[in-house]
Structure to design on (396 residues):
C-alpha cells in the first residue's frame, strides 16, 4: 500500500468514470464511504470480475464473459437476419427498443483509411466468412449515418450484394418528438424526399 | 458466479453511485470496458481496499485507514484551535479553502431529538473529554446554519463556554459572487444587520 491516504487514492481512481471531475469524485467517495459501503464493496467486486473476464463473443464480437454470447447461443434467434452494428452499446439499444429476433455482427468501429482503419483492421473478413456460411439472407446495416459510417455501410453492402443477399439499412427521417424547425436541413431534405403514403 | 451476464451485473452495481440511473450506468460500463479497462481495474482494486480499510480517526473521527488521521498526527497543527464540523467532507472543504492550521472534531451528524439523535448518539461526551484535556482555547463552530445545525451549535457552545473557552462560528452573509436580488431574505437581513466598516 502506498503512503498516500486511501481516500485520496479512491478520489483519484474514480476519475476514470466518464464525466467525473475532482469535485464529483470527492462527492462520490464520501457518499460511498459514509452511506453505502455495501454498494461500494459490491461494485468493486463486480467491476474487478468484469474488467478481467469480459471479452468478445467469438461469433458476433459483442461484450461477454462467455466464449459465445447469450444471443448467438440462443437457437430461437433467426440466423437468416444479420444486423451489423458499430459498438456493443448499439446492439443493446436495438435489443431494448425493437423486437428484432435475428443475430448481430459488431464491427468495433468504422472504416477510416486516414486513421489506418481498413477492412482488415475491422476484421471484415470474419463478416465475409459469416455471410459465406449461407445462413444469412438479409443484412441490416445499423450504422451511424456519418461520412465514415456511410463508407463502412457501402463496403459491407457490396460484400453482401456480391453474395446475392438482400441489404437494408435503418430508415432516416424526422425523429419521434422532433420539431421540424429545429431539425438540420440535411435530415429534413432526406425525410421530405423519402416521404411515404399515409 | 451467478448466471446473470457480468455486463448486466456491472450495470446494476454501478447504480450505487450517486445520481447514476440505468442509462448512465450502461454508458459508464461500456466506457470502462471498451476504452479504459486499466482505469476500471485500478478503481475496483482501490475501492475494495477503501471500503474495507477506511474507518474513523480515533481522535477527530474523520475518515482514514489509519488509527489516527494525518492531521491529528501532525505535530505542527495548532491544538489550541478546534474546528467542529458535521461531516468529513466539511473538513476537506475547509482544508482546501482556508489556511486554518488547527485541529478538527467531526460530529457525524446534527442533534435531532425527533429522530432520536441526542448528544449521546453524536458522541458529544468525546468532545467534552477533548475540551477537558485543556489544550483547546478556541472552539470554531463550522456547522450548517439550519435549524438542527443551530441547535447543535448552541449545545456545543454551552459545552465550551462552561469550560471558559472562546467560541466562534463562521461568518454569515452574502456569498462571493452572489447577486443581492437573488439572495433569500433571511440571509440578506443577516448580512445587513452584520454590516462592517469599510
Amino acid at each position: 500500500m502506498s503512503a498516500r491516504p486511501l481516500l485520496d487514492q479512491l478520489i483519484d481512481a474514480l476519475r476514470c468514470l466518464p464525466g467525473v471531475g475532482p469535485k464529483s469524485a470527492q462527492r462520490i467517495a464520501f457518499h460511498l464511504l459514509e452511506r453505502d459501503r455495501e454498494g461500494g464493496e459490491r461494485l468493486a467486486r463486480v467491476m474487478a470480475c468484469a474488467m478481467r473476464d469480459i471479452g468478445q463473443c467469438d461469433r458476433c464480437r459483442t461484450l461477454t464473459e462467455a466464449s459465445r454470447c447469450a444471443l448467438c447461443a440462443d437457437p430461437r434467434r433467426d440466423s437468416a437476419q444479420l444486423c451489423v452494428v458499430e459498438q456493443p452499446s448499439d446492439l443493446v439499444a436495438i435489443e431494448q427498443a425493437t423486437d428484432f429476433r435475428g443475430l448481430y455482427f459488431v464491427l468495433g468501429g468504422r472504416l477510416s483509411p486516414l486513421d489506418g482503419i481498413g477492412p482488415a483492421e475491422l476484421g471484415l473478413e470474419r463478416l465475409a466468412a459469416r455471410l459465406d456460411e449461407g445462413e444469412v439472407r438479409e443484412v441490416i446495416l445499423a450504422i451511424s449515418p456519418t461520412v465514415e459510417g456511410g463508407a463502412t455501410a457501402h463496403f459491407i453492402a457490396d460484400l453482401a450484394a456480391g453474395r446475392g443477399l438482400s441489404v437494408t439499412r435503418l430508415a432516416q427521417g424526422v425523429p419521434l418528438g422532433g420539431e421540424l424547425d429545429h431539425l438540420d436541413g440535411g435530415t429534413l431534405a432526406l425525410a421530405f424526399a423519402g416521404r411515404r403514403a399515409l
Remarks:
- The helical segments of chain B are 6-13, 22-35, 37-53, 88-97, 124-132, 147-161, 185-193.
- Chain B has seven helices and six strands.
- Residues 70-197 of chain B form a domain with the Dna Topoisomerase Vi A Subunit; Chain: A, domain 2 fold (CATH 3.40.1360.10).
